[in-house]
Amino acid sequence: MAAATVLSAASRPAAAPDGILVVDNITKRFETPEGVVTAVDGVSLSVAPGEFVGVIGPSGCGKSTLFNIIGGLLDGYDGTVKVAGDLVRGPHPAIGMIFQEESTFPWRTVLDNVAFPLEIAGVAKRERYERARHFVSLVGLDGFERRYPAELSGGMRQRVSMARTLAAQPKILLMDEPFAALDEQTRLLLGDKVLQIQQELKQTTLIITHNITEAVQLSDRILVMTYRPGKLKRMIKIDLPRPRSSEIVSSEAFGRYVAQIWSDLREEASRGLRADEAAKLQHGGQP
Amino acid sequence: MSAQAITKARWFPGVLGFGSFIAAVLLIELLIRVGLINRFIVPLPSDIVLAFPRVVIEEHVLSRFVLTAAEAFSASILVTVFGVAGGVLLYQFRLLREATETWVAALAAAPLVLIYPLYMVIFGRNATTIVAMGFTAGVAPVTLKTLEGLAGTRRVLINVGRSFNLTPSQQFWKILFPAALPTIFVGMRLGLIFALINIVGVEFLINCGGLGQLINELAERYDLAGTYAAISFVILISICVFFLTERLERWLRPVE
């Protein structure tokens, strides 16, 4: 059933040779008081146009580092990131980012938040509000245009962030655990919204997450990362029918994918846990 | 909640505050009348109220109020412009920040009113000295709070700006500055209080017009009720300053 491919250092980039996003042999090291830490080691991946790819790994595997590198927010790494053949040297206009933390601007209304990238691009006021209204509607927030983020729930605020990023019409949507701060039910429902939007816009998407259910619910392919240093361990193709919804989580096939990914992740997550405990012991129990 | 309940909820805090103030004034009146508070130290609130017409007509309090308010307003503009600019400079240039932040903090805590003789030598015995004293006393808190607000901007908001390829100028005006505004306004309120205290204090010390001079004259005549009535006008300036800064903040950042 599940088509899984074990990835070696030589097997790069992971699938999609015609990728619109190609990450080639990325290695990132950080200097810390304890010495040099390799956060990401030789990661290669490729995402085809319209494809939804999930990257999953345990805490501390360098997922967010990878997100920042692909988004152009982090430099000083080995390897290359290319978008449609164009080398990424900083934030790239073709990449739209959705962050894990709450990132709406509290001083702007929902509509002004969503219109933000259009305002920066110099789009005329009337047109940018028209376009912003379309994206507000797309994420299901009709009627909330004049509200401020403080008046919305966490899930609604995250949808505002999503609409704001989509309003810039990026070729690639890059999401870093966008629903990590939300409860499981809201997370599943927002997953439905993401699937619906992806279906409608044919949006190429790379999601970075530690949530197995979320990864399987949304992705066409899942890349499993090892604990530090973060390497790609396995690629799993998710052959679940589209269009999907959160109802799929109760299917047998879904359960098998979740079990398979967990069997890959368990070993890595255990390593991470042991490393964290050892670090705490070394620091006299101090976090 | 019914419309009546909403209206009640909206007005209740204000009514409670005003009612508490009136109750406190009545209590003081009572304590003075029964002799628990010495009326030669604290005048009767009713005497203070009766002193208002006298202070307004005989002591020309309105022109003095306008002078002190104008000095406070001038100092406020200077404090805001230079304080915010100073905070931005300290934020932008790390070396400058590390070299001077402690000094700026020390300046904020220092009893700067003591340097008024120096300013009198430089500017003369006039309103310029008073405005300069207000500015000197108020600029440091605004600088420090502006720096704190800018430095405290959440990393993710800066990253959102970077992900949209904002220029440094856009990053500042569209993200850093609005994010820092609540903290900047805290600094402004502190700075304007410091400025007002020093303005009235120096007017008092150098006997150079305004409400400070009037308070000094009334105190020397041992006109306690008149002195407190004049002090009420200083409080009125303070209320005006708070009201204006609050309105300005709400206009710049409608909802927090």
List keywords for this structure.
heterodimer; A: 287 residues; alpha/beta; Rossmann fold; seven-stranded mixed β-sheet; four-stranded antiparallel β-sheet; B: 256 residues; mainly alpha; MetI-like fold; 2 domains; globular
Describe the 3D structure.
The complex is a heterodimer of chains A (287) and B (256). With 287 residues, chain A is of the alpha/beta class. Chain A has 2 domains: 3-94 and 171-282, 3-Layer(aba) Sandwich (Rossmann fold), CATH 3.40.50.300; 102-169, no CATH class. Chain A has 7 helices and 11 strands. The longest helix of chain A has 31 residues, at 252-282. The mean pLDDT of chain A is 88. Chain B folds into 2 domains: 1-42, no CATH class; 43-252, Orthogonal Bundle (MetI-like fold). In chain B, 84% of the residues lie in helices and 0% in strands. Chain B starts with a helix and ends with a helix.
Residue-averaged pLDDT of chain B: 91
Outline type of chain B: globular
- The total tally of domains of chain B equals 2
Which segments of chain B are poorly predicted (pLDDT under 50) over 5 or more consecutive residues?
none
| Overall number of domains of chain A | 2
Q: Which fold does the CATH topology of the largest domain in chain B refer to?
A: MetI-like fold
Do you know the CATH architecture of the largest domain in chain A? 3-Layer(aba) Sandwich
- Overall residue-averaged pLDDT value of chain A: 88
Strand count, sense and barrel status of the largest sheet of chain A are: 7 strands, mixed
* The top level CATH class name of the largest domain in chain A: Alpha Beta
CATH homologous superfamily (4th level) name of the largest domain in chain A: P-loop containing nucleotide triphosphate hydrolases
What Rg of chain A, in angstroms, do the CA atoms define?
19 Å
Biggest protein-protein interface? A-B, 24 and 21 residues
- Principal-axes shape call of chain A: globular
Q: What's the N-to-C terminus distance of chain B?
A: 23 Å
Name the helicity range of chain B. over 70%
Proportion of β residues of chain B? under 5%
